[in-house]
Amino acid sequence: MVTRKNFLKSGLALAGAPYLSLGQTAAHPKNVLLLMSDEHRRDALGIEGNRIVRTPNLDSLARSGVRFGSAYCTNPVCTPSRASLLTGLYTHHHHAWNNGSPWPFEHKTMAHYFNRAGYMTALIGKMHFVDAQTHGFDYRLDFNDWYQYLGPQTKLYADELGRANSGSGLPQIDDLWRDSGDPWKNARALDGRKGPVAVGRASQIPEQDHFDNFVARETVRFLKNHGKRQPFFAISSCLKPHDPFMPAPRFASMFRAQDMPLPPTWGKVDLTQVPKEVRDLIALNGPTPELSDPALARERIALYYANLAQLDDALGQVLTALRELDLERDTIVLYTSDHGELLGDHSLWQKFQFYESSCGVPLIVRAPGITAAGARCAMPVSLVQVLPTLAELCGVPLPALDGPSLVPQLRNVADTRDLPIFSEYNLQTARAKYMLRRSDFKYTFRVNDMPELYDMKRDPDELDNLALKPNHRDRAEQMKRELFAWYTPPELSSAPPPRKKQ
To answer: Where are the beta strands (DSSP E) in 126-231?
Structure first.
């Protein structure tokens, strides 16, 4: 297997010069504010031409910095993706395999590296650590602090979830309920949902008490109390637009279900050209079976955009405070999400796939003195590159990690180098799958299912699976070899033999 160091040297270590203090001087070290959401698909920004969304604050941030139009998560599910973001390592290196896997202690995070460089580090909001490790952060507020703030209103949130759901933060840590069971069982006011995840509705929790508003308010408090005492590295991490799709009424009223168009791929998938996993999910969306009804699908789409509008409003509170506290000129701001949301594309929902709306994420960087205002970089990039980027901007030393810094692209958004971009999912299972984006093509290898190859320029909706076409067999095989050079799936050792051709 290709080692991380050798792989970086051979293909990715294009920013291999020693770290320069690009973003700081001895008198004014640059602060870092990393804004995060959960399940924000890449195209759901007004500045990207989406006419439905209401994201004025994120659009304004993008107009003052650089946005990456082809950014990918490393794993289309919360915990592994967030572990990659914070450690700079792919899943098969950091070993936080899924949403139930604790992050191994030996892999250090952004907090450790910035702490050693003299920064105060803060994590306010969701990070899905799985267990009680703090992973190097000096200052920490999360779901359990929100429940303490909510008091009796916590029941309203338990009602909205309808079940134990660590992805939405109740419980925040699965092990806390593992021995004695769900303490909210038989105490929730259940609704009529057919599966574990509701289509959605307006929330009964007062707007100011939503988790995202709590995160925004506590981030502002941190900035007021600590923003000028020493350089800070702060993550402000919201839950929305992730389920429950239950925004405050002010935002729910902004979007009407009847105004929501169904995706262009809705009902258009040729079931003979997609893997069995995809066929099964189209046939039955287990978490929310109601979404086979187009009217309810439109309702869920409207509520997703309402959740997103509330997220944007919360982030706007933080960005306004940064400006009013006179911290803006000395603070690098980066916004991203851990993965996307299919939202009916290919008649699919949630994430877990390598289609663009699932594994594509927004990525916006504003670095005073470095980034040009309103620039857009089209080169495919990965969230595994975020830590090296922030470290280079701030002159923070790092060991060898899995991705190069994006500083060259921040300085030159027209950079057209063809770097390989990888993603992976369901490792250590019989349903493991791996993705490679190379130039205009995206290839997916599934251990026990059909491969996929799409020409992203000619077929951006990903409906024509070229892996099944004889005239594209050579390209599919070449991309498979490159994928296996990056990481050979260990699950192959237990995979059944391929079927004989009929």
So the answer is: 139-141
Q: How many Cβ atoms sit within 10 Å of the Cβ of residue 240? A: 30
3-state secondary structure 133-151: CCCCCCEEECHHHHHHHHH
How do residues 424-436 score in pLDDT, each as one tens digit? 999 999 999 999 9
Give the contacts of 372 (CB within 8 A, at least 6 positions apart).
66, 413
The third-level CATH classification (topology) of the domain covering 29-420 is Alkaline Phosphatase, subunit A (3.40.720)
Burial of 228 (0-12, 13-18, 19+ CB in 10 A): middle
Domain assignments of the chain as residue spans, ordered by start: 29-420
> Helix, strand, coil: what percent of the chain each, to 5?
35, 15, 50
- As a whole number of angstroms, the distance between CA 199 and CA 291 comes to 7
Give the C-alpha separation, 459 to 467, whole Å: 13
Cβ contacts of residue 216 below 8 Å, gap of 6+?
236, 238, 314, 315, 317, 318
Q: How far apart are the first and last CA of the chain?
A: 34
pTM score, two decimals? 0.93
